[in-house]
Amino acid sequence: MIRKKKIAIGLFLLFVILQFYPINREVPTVKPSLDFLSGLEIDRNMAKQIKASCYDCHSHETIYPWYAQIAPLSIWIQGHVDNGKKKLNFSEWGSYSINQKRHHLEDCIEIVEKKWMPLKSYMWLHPEGKLEETEREEMINFFKSSL
Ligand code: HEC
């Protein structure tokens, strides 16, 4: 009994200490002129869908839900955002070379086709980011038309 109590207290303390784990959420100011969606003649619904499905991890416009403040969830979520942005950042689209842009668009097409993105864990908590079959196809076609 006492051991269980000690473990419970230990876990609780760990949880409390984790809350002080520093997370860097600083982002540069968004420059609309560099943004992927601002430079394109784009259907409003498509822009909205891409923002809802991709921008939380692939832009400087991440909208953090309340539970993203709570460790260890916060650490895990920030990991997705950092890694996602490192690979592809729609807020810095304008600074990519033509080759990089083409490469990213080809990746986007493949990744959305194979349903790797948006990440599954993301869609559980962000149903608005979920892609129905037709929405998936429309997004693929949109990326193709931007190539
Ligand atoms: C919950 C966060 C999250 C969401 C939402 C998300 N991604 Fe990602 N994405 C990532 C992470 C993390 C990686 C890096 C994966 C890795 O390194 O293995 C990644 C990688 C990618 C890559 C690969 C880049 C490369 O060079 O390897 C592409 C392309 C991509 N995502 C496109 C998208 C598109 C398009 C959407 C929206 C339909 C989207 N992602 C939504 C987190 C996310």
Describe this structure in words.
There is one protein chain. 56% of the residues lie in helices and 0% in strands. It has helices at residues 2-18, 44-58, 73-87, 98-113, 120-125, 133-146. Helix 4 runs antiparallel to helix 6 (133-146). The radius of gyration is 19 Å and the shape is elongated. The model has no long low-confidence stretch (mean pLDDT 94). Residues 53-54, 56-58, 80, 83-84, 87-88, 107-108, 111-112, 117-119, 122 line the site of heme C.
SSE layout:
Blueprint (H helix, E strand, L loop, with lengths): L1 H17 L25 H15 L14 H15 L10 H16 L6 H6 L7 H14 L1
Helix pairs in contact: 4-6
Summarize the structure in short:
The chain has 147 residues and is mostly helical. The protein is 56% helix and 0% strand. Helix 4 packs antiparallel against helix 6 (133-146).
Query: Which cofactors or ions or other ligands sit in this model?
Result: heme C
Global outline:
elongated
Uncertain parts:
none
> Helix count, per DSSP?
6
Q: Strand fraction band?
A: under 5%
**Radius of gyration in whole Å, from Cα?**
19 Å
* Overall pLDDT confidence: 94
Number of strands: 0
Tally of separate domains: 1
Characteristics of this structure?
147 residues, 6 helices, 0% strand
